[in-house]
Amino acid sequence: MSNPSGLWLFALLFLSSSVSAQFKPDEMMKPYAYTNEFGEVLMCQLWAPQYPTQGKKYPLILFLHGSGECGNDNKRQTRVGLPSLLKQLVLQPEPVIVLAPQCQAGNGWVKNLAMQPDYRAAKEPTASLDIALELCRHLVQSKQADPDRLYITGLSLGGFGTWDAIQRDPSFFAAAVPICGGGDTRFSRALKAFPIWVFHGRNDKNVHPDCSRRMVRAIESVGGNISYTEYEYGSHVIWDQAYSDKNLVPWLLKQTRVKKPWWKLW
Questions:
Q1: CB–CB of 208/178 below 8 Å?
Q2: What pLDDT, on the 0 to 100 scale, is given for residue 259?
Q3: DSSP calls for the chain
Q4: What is the per-residue pLDDT across 134-183, written as a single tens digit (0 to 9) for each?
Q5: Backbone phi, then psi, for 246, in 5-degree steps?
Q6: Taking a C-beta distance cutoff of 8 angstroms, is the pair 141, 160 a contact?
Q7: Which residues contact 166 (CB under 8 A, 6 or more apart)?
Q8: How far apart are CA 255 and CA 173, in angstroms?
Q9: Is residue 192 classed exposed, middle or buried when 0-12, 13-18 and 19+ CB atoms within 10 A define those classes?
Q10: Which CATH number fits domain 4-254: 3.10.450.50, 3.40.50.1820, 3.20.20.70, 3.30.420.40?
Q11: Cβ(155)–Cβ(65) under 8 Å?
C-alpha cells in the first residue's frame, strides 16, 4: 500500500533519537515522506516513542496545521500550536505517536471553509486530508498505532479539517479537538456519541466564534457528548492556551473509539 521501507517506519526514527531530556519536545520530530500505491506523496513530521515495546500499539494523534503553515518545506507545520501540544504530551506516562502532515496552498484540509450557517461539506475529502487519513490507516495496518485510540486535532484551517474528518466517519477516530474551526451542522446526530472538545476565542476576527458555536449547539440539541471552551478575551491565536490546558491531553488519551458493528470492516 505504501513505502516498502515504511513497514516499520519508526525504526529509523527510534534509532536516531536521543534521550528526550536533551531536546525540546518539538525538536524530537522527524521528517517522513509517505508514498501510497498511486504515487501520491504526503510530507509529514513524526513524533514517536523513543524506546518502543515490541508488539505494542500506540495511541496516535493526527495534527492538522493552519493555513499559514501550508507549503512544501515540511517544517512550518511544527512551529505553530504543535510545540504546546507536545509539551503536554511529554508529561504523560504513556508514549504517543504524533503525525503532523503538511498540505500545500490550494490543496488544504477542506475545499471550502464552514463560515456560514448554510455551509454544506463537499461530497469527497480533499486530496491532502484523504492521504493523511490513509497514512493513519497504514500505521494501524502495520500494527504501530492502536485502532481504538486514534485522535485528531487541528487549528484554524486544521480546525475545519478536523470537523470534516470526523463528519465523514465518526467511527474512525476516538476523539477530536477542533480549534477555531467549524463544520456541517447536518452531521450533528452522527456525532452525538463522539467525544469532542471545542476551543475558540470570543474576539476571533479571522474565524467568527459562531462557527464553533453552531456545531456545539447542533450536537447539544441531539444530546451529544461535547465540551466547549470559549476564551473571553481570546482572539484567533488561542491554540497555545488550549493545548496548554492541563486537563486536555489526559482527557483526550482516555477516550476509546466506539467500534463499528461486527459485520462492518474496519
A1: no
A2: 66
A3: -B-GGGTTTHHHHHHH---GGGS-GGGG-EEEEEEBTT--EEEEEEE--SSPPTT--EEEEEEE--GGG-SSSS-GGGTSSHHHHHHHHTTSSS--EEEEE-PBTTB-S-SS---STT----SS--HHHHHHHHHHHHHHHTTSEEEEEEEEEEETHHHHHHHHHHHH-TTT-SEEEEES----GGGTTTTTTS-EEEEEETT-SSS-THHHHHHHHHHHHTT--EEEEEETT--S--HHHHHT-TTHHHHHHH--PPPPPTTS--
A4: 999 999 999 999 999 999 999 999 999 999 999 999 999 999 999 999 99
A5: -70, -10
A6: no
A7: 152, 172, 173, 176, 191, 194, 196
A8: 10
A9: middle
A10: 3.40.50.1820
A11: yes
Q: Answer yes or no: is pLDDT of 15 > 60.
A: no
Give the other-Cβ count within 10 Å of 54's Cβ.
4
Share of the chain above pLDDT 70, in %: 87
At 206, list the grid cell: 479571522
Report residue 169: phi and psi, to 5°. Answer: -155, 90
Amino acid identity for residue 132 in this structure: A
The predicted model gives 236-252 an average pLDDT of 98
Domain ranges of the chain: 4-254
Count of residues in the chain = 266
pLDDT at residue 23 greater than cutoff 70: no
